[in-house]
Amino acid sequence: MVTVRKADPALMDGGTQKPRELSPAAREREQQHRQFKRLIGQLKGPDQVFEVRLDSTEKPITIRQRLLRVAAEANVEIAVRKHGDGFLVGLLTPERRTNRGRRAAGAAPKI
User: Fold this and answer.
1) What pLDDT was estimated at residue 39?
2) Tell me: the pLDDT tens digits for 24-58?
3) Is residue 16 predicted with pLDDT exceeding 70?
4) CB contact at 8 A, 85 and 53
5) Residue 37: other Cβ atoms inside 10 A
6) What's the N-to-C CA distance of the chain in angstroms?
7) What is residue 98's predicted lDDT score, i.e. its pLDDT?
8) What's the CA angle centered on 102, arms 97 and 105, to 5 degrees?
9) What residues contact 63, with CB distance under 8 A and at least 6 apart?
10) How far are the Cα atoms of 15, 47, 68, 89 from residue 73, in angstroms, in the given order?
11) In this predicted model, what pLDDT tens digit does every residue of 92-107 receive, in sequence order?
């Protein structure tokens, strides 16, 4: 059974708490997000390509997904390619678009 009782109105209005301090890992992620946002903002044409190098503590799939998420937030289509121990990032062009998992247009299905 639910218990209902009268409460002080100050409890409802005085609920402002000071914001929690971010952990070191969260601060690092936030800094990386800003860095990726600047990188995406600098991509003005297909002739501009940036290299993103990873250190030993970072997982490549995580960094790739973060890059794609930041680009989606900025409404920019990017291509991310493996290169050495990191990635190359540039604007998505028809030549850079992958057809992975899709048949070419007009191709007949194999029977």
Assistant:
1) 92
2) 999 999 999 999 999 999 999 989 999 999 988 89
3) no
4) yes
5) 14
6) 65
7) 83
8) 85
9) 52, 54, 87
10) 32, 22, 9, 16
11) 988 888 877 777 666 6
